[in-house]
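Researcher: Next entry in the queue.
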Amino acid sequence: MEYYCKEDAFEFMERTSLIFDRLCAYRFLEHVPMDRVLYFIYLLSTVVKKGGLVDIIVPNYMTLADMILNENVNDSEFEAHNIILTTELVNEPGCPHASIWTKDRAIKFFQLEGRFNVKEIDENFVFDGRDIYLRILAERI
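Model: Structure for this entry, 141 residues:
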């Protein structure tokens, strides 16, 4: 059975009694403010059974930083890269990106409190036709 959460994720996890085998959060975690990331990960641990997986896709800030450091404003692809960078780094004011994700940060935050073990990270994950994402698979322990 699949369940699609159509409400505030924090509120849902705080009050649900459902326990999932696998939880997917694609293009969401980067919108969680840094001061709430550890609480969000804790909430994930309350709704995923032991041995269950959390599947996360976020922008990979190492890839984005590399794009900035190596950009050529005179390149014919500059405008396309600029759109990606602007969207992924700052997004829209009504839905800003509020936390930064890299492989090392994902491992640190998911494993910090001993609730998850990061099983796999794809640092060049392609999503929506862009290869700028990080895919994190973490197992509930």
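Model: Strands lie at 20-26, 48-59, 91-92, 95-96, 116-127, 130-140.
Researcher: Noted, moving on.
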